[in-house]
Predict the 3D structure of the following.
Amino acid sequence: MKPNNHSIHGKVFAGLATIVVTGLIPAAVLLSIFLLLVSLPLPDYLTAPFHPVIKVQAKKKTITLVLDPGHGGSQSGAEEGDVKEKDLNLTIGKYLKEILESDYEGIRVSLTRDEDEDVGLKERVRIASDRDADMMISLHNNARGDNFEYKDGCTVLTAQGNYKPDLARQEQELACCILSELEALGLNNRGILLRDSETGDSYEDGSVADYYAIIRGGLNLNTPSVIVEHAFMDEENDFQNHLSSDEHLKELAQADAAGIARYFGLKSRKTGEVLPPPADYEVIFYHMYDENPDHNKKFTKVFFPSEENEEKSSEKAAEQSTEESKRNPSEESTESRPEESTAQHKDPGNLFMITEFLRKLAEEFSSLVR
Ligand SMILES: [Zn+2]
């Protein structure tokens, strides 16, 4: 039997109809859904300017910060004439809380003491931990000591990082942000001080403990804690330029606040801006192992590598890492891990670029359809 033209046309028509129903209609539905999706505003986490601590912001809306004005009550700290360190620390702490809460969004600040009273070191850490602090910052001012190599300027003390290296890393990143702001104020930047226990104390994993109770206790309670030594009370220029009036103390608090804001990515209420941490920040480390200053070690590390310098600084850190582990194998875990910051830089960046690309593609397409 020979099929006539009519039945061939009918079959072709039926075939085409099937293709249309099974192929084009679902395609049109998918396209509509896609166009609807791309016309919706992108969520904040995709469009917000990226900076290395975006993970902190994404996890928690509000940062909880505990400030700890050092000494107090019967413990004066360093003294210079009539001026007592405990009073300077408290004044800086009160200014700092006020500035952070009035100038920035997304941060809640409290103090371990807001008057001239005795608070034990363990209690200070306990207070920060009980308040579920993202960070504790202990506020101090310095005086000359026999085993320090410098006699002026600002220093931030952090954990050395053998134990809970991730927390030590957070402390050191915050330290960089604060140091860069204090340096901009005119203080000599003495970098980050690491100090080992001199009494043979160790953490529960057997690694040597940090010397300072605030830092050691912070690690034990999973509350990263740093000590900021703003300036030397017994150094003429430091004292006159940075500690001799409430105005000067307020400037120190403003610098601390700017550094804290950069680290946590806080949005300024005045400008609406979020400023990033200082890129390619090279910081000096002093590591004190015991009471003998000849045993101190001095080295530098680069934090927050910019994209152009990521490779270079990874190589540099790798070199340094080999050198340092040759000198002291137990120190391996304190090395900077540039691949972490690299990953943090790239992930949200790529995601952002892909969504931007899809959005542009959709725009092109919808203009063709119209
Ligand atoms: Zn002190």
About this structure: The radius of gyration is 28 Å. Residues 43-59, 322-356 have pLDDT under 50 and may be disordered.
